[in-house]
Amino acid sequence: MSDMNYAEIVGTGHSVPERILTNFDLEKIVDTSDEWIVTRTGIRERHIADKDTTASTLGTEAATQALEKAGMGAEDLDLILVATVTPDMPFPSTAAIIQKKINASKSAVMDISAGCTGFIYGLSIADSYIKTGIFKNILVIGVEVLTKITDWTDRSTCVLFGDGAGAVVLRATKERKGVLGTYIKGDGRLGELLMMPGGGSRNPASEETVAHRLHYLKMSGNEVFRFAVQAMGDASRAILETTGLKPEDIGMLVPHQANLRIINATAKRLGLPPEKVYINIDRYGNTSSASIPIALDEIRSNGNYKKASPLLLVAFGAGFTWGSAAISW
Ligand code: UT7
Q1: pLDDT at 4
Q2: Is beta strand 108-112 parallel, antiparallel or unpaired with respect to 311-317?
Q3: Which of 122, 188, 245, 289 has its CA 20 to 30 A from that of 112?
C-alpha cells in the first residue's frame, strides 16, 4: 500500500465489423498476391466496416463490453478518452458522440490524435489523472475505421489496414497494479511519411482535393518501416528502465500490429521467445490505435490471463509518435 493511486484495469472490450476481406479478395482489386502480403506483413485477412459503421459505432460496442465486465455504470465515468485518426467527423469529438450513446453524462470527453500510438497516449493521460487523484474512473478507447480513408487503387497501402475498436476501463486503486508506467514520445519532423493531407484547414475539401486523392492515407512504407524498428526498440528499453523491469520479467509483449517483421525484430531485441509475443495481425491487419486494446481484451478473455503479467505494450505511428507502457492485471 502507498499514498499514490494506481490505475487498475477493471474491464476490457473489443469490436470488429462482421465483414472479412481476405488477401484473395484483394487479389481481385489490385495487383497483389496472398503470398506477397503474408511474407511482407503477416496479414491474412482484415475486418471492413460497412457504410453505416463509424468510429463511434465500434467504439460504443467495445466500451459497453468493457463497462459491463468492470461492473461499472457509464454514469460513474469521470473521463472518456478516444484515440483515433478516423473520427466520426472533425468535431464534435468521437468521445462526445460515444458519451451520448452510452449515457455517461457526468464525464469529460476528449479525442487524442497520435496515430497508432494513440491508445498508449490515452493510457498515459488516464494514468496521470488517476495518479494525481483528479479522476477515479476513466474509459480509454482506441478505435479506427481506416478502410474509410484507404485508397483502394494504391496496393502499397490498401492491403495493410483493417477496422476495429478496443476499450479499457481504469479505476483508481491504492494497490500497486494496473498501469506500472508509461513512456510517450513524438517527432513532428517525420510527419509527412504518414498522413492524410486533405480535409483539414490546409486542404479543405473541394473538388480539387478530391480529384487529387488528398482524402486518402498516404505512406512512405519503407521509411516508416525503418523508423518503426528503431522506435519500438527505444520505447521498449525506456519502459524497462523507468519501471525497473527486466526483459525476463515480461509475461507478454503486446506490440502494435503493423507488420509481423517489425514485431519479430522488437521481440528479438528483447530476447523474448515467440510464446511471449502476442500476435493477431494475421486476423485483423493493422487497426492502428485499436490494435493494442483489441489484443488486451483477447488476452483477458482467456481464463489463464493473469499468468501473462506484467505486459509490455509498445507502439509507433503517425506524427511521428511512439510509446510504451507496462501493465499488470
Ligand atoms: O502503423 C503504422 C503504419 N505503417 C506501417 O507500419 C508500415 C511500415 N512499413 C511496412 O510495413 C512495409 O514497408 C510495407 C509492408 C508497407 C512494404 O514492404 P517492403 O518490404 O518495405 O516493400 P517495398 O515498399 O520495399 O516494396 C517492395 C516491392 C516493390 O516492387 P519493386 O519496386 O521492388 O518492383 C513494390 O512495388 O513490392 C511492391 N509492392 C507490392 N507487391 C505486391 C508494394 N506493395 C505491394 C503489394 N503487392 N501489395
Answers
A1: 87
A2: unpaired
A3: 245
Q: How many CB atoms lie within 10 A of CB 236?
A: 26
For ligand 1, atom 47, which residue shows the shortest CA distance?
32
Q: What is the pLDDT of residues 268-286, one digit of tens each?
A: 999 999 999 999 999 999 9
CATH class of the domain comprising 180-328: alpha beta
Catalytic residue among 116, 137, 158, 259: 116
What pairs with residue 182 in β-bridges? 325
Cα(221) to centroid(ligand 1), Å: 6
**CA separation for the pair 224, 203 (Å, rounded):** 24
Residue 28, C-beta contacts closer than 8 angstroms, at least 6 positions apart: none
Backbone angles phi, psi at 109, to 5 degrees: -135, 140
Position 308 scores a pLDDT of: 86
The pTM score is: 0.97
CA dihedral 238, 111, 162, 148 (to 10 degrees): -140
Helices (H), 71-111: 94-102
pLDDT in tens, 92-132: 999 999 999 999 999 999 999 999 999 999 999 999 999 99
Q: What is the CATH number of domain 6-176?
A: 3.40.47.10
Residue 2 reports pLDDT greater than 80: no
**Which cell goes with 196?**
492524410
The rounded Cα 221 to chain-centroid distance in angstroms is 19
Distance 176 CA to ligand 1 centre (A): 43
User: Distances from the Cα of 249 to the Cαs of 134, 144, 245, 276, 310, in angstroms?
Assistant: 31, 32, 6, 11, 7
CA atoms within 13 Å, Cβ hemisphere of 157: 20
- Phi, psi of 144, rounded to the nearest 5 degrees: -150, 140
Q: Is the peptide bond before 204 cis (omega within 30 degrees of 0)?
A: no
3-state class of 285 per DSSP? coil
Nearest atom within ligand 1 for CA of residue 259? 11
